Amino acid sequence: MNRTIISLFLLIFLLVQAKAQESTHISESIPNPTNPDTEEDIDSVEKDMSDVWNLFKSNPIKRVNRDSILQHKKVHFAIIPGIGYSLQTGFSTFITGNGVFKTAKGTSTNQSSFYAFLSYTQYKQLILPLVFSIWTPRNKYHITSDNRFLKYPSLTYGTGEASLDAQPSALNFLYFKMHETIMRKVWSNVYVGIGYYFDRFWKIREVTNTRHRGTPAFIGLNLDQEALASGLVAKITYDSRPRLINPIKGLYASLLLRDNTPLLGGDSRWRTGLIEIRKFFTLPGKAKNVLALWSHNWFTLNGNPHYLMLPSTGWDDYFNTGRGYIQSRFRGSDMFYLEAELRYKILPSGLLGGVLFANLQYFTGNPKRSDHILVPAGGLGLRIKMNKKSATNLAIDYGFGINGSHGFFINLGESF
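Below the sequence we write its predicted structure tokens.
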């Protein structure tokens, strides 16, 4: 684990030097993630890893020159290799390529970005996303494209109360995701839009041998070997955060409705909804510590989605819900999720910080909604300031859940 953290640390430092971290987290948020800072957000005494690096170099990094180069480039692109770790993937090697560009000159247009990633993991998983976030001139439209291919042997635990004490079962599948949306600005901080979502799972099978992560149990899920969902979405968002990465104040709220239908090639008719709220408070005092709240509510309106398309731990767009548990640990017809996190400075410069977090997951079973579960988790973490201009941290968390669940959770940037 120590080698993993060191490798990630070195990787993220390279990303900072290349300015590539500014496009790592692709989002449907409205604020400009690459020019996020306001006068009240930047403290002249703040330090990051570039400042530390300057102590050991004869030619210190000049931020102004680096930033001016970026402003004059039409497209800034970087390719970075690295090593990672998560509970579901184990150790992984990857190469990532990302870039940023603008569709119009001036500060009134947010910076667009694209992101590609190729990873092969300890558990023989192949992960390949290709994600775009495009802002048209003066942010009139925001176009997002989230495309992913997964070859994903993983662990699953079933649904309902029986999953609380269940032993994991190994499940193999291939997955292709294509989520496209176009949002139009209709008011200050308010965007509305439509989209098309396509999800296909195939070669689904429960593994009965004991070579995958020890001795997995055979749950007997009796799953179809293929599942396809295709349908239209409607979405509305409100976002008053002054910056996307590590905000210190503001509100983000989003409502999404998805209608999957055989008319567009899906297996069956079913509808889902997603309500997400994120609220950030700057606490009193010079340190500007932050209290962050997150509500992620994913529910089935009607019909019967396939097992792998049900709401589940860690299956939000960025795989961050449920720190303290492995991805897919809980699953059901509906998921209601709450998380609170206290983010505080350890050093006055902000170079080192810490977090305390707690979350609560509530699932209704499938197909009986009376078969419900409520599971808490919590933990603590360390934050290393990688870039003070974009407020990007290397986040190293350790989470604890019930029944002995625990593990590391490592991100570039905050969980929400």
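The longest strand covers residues 169-187.
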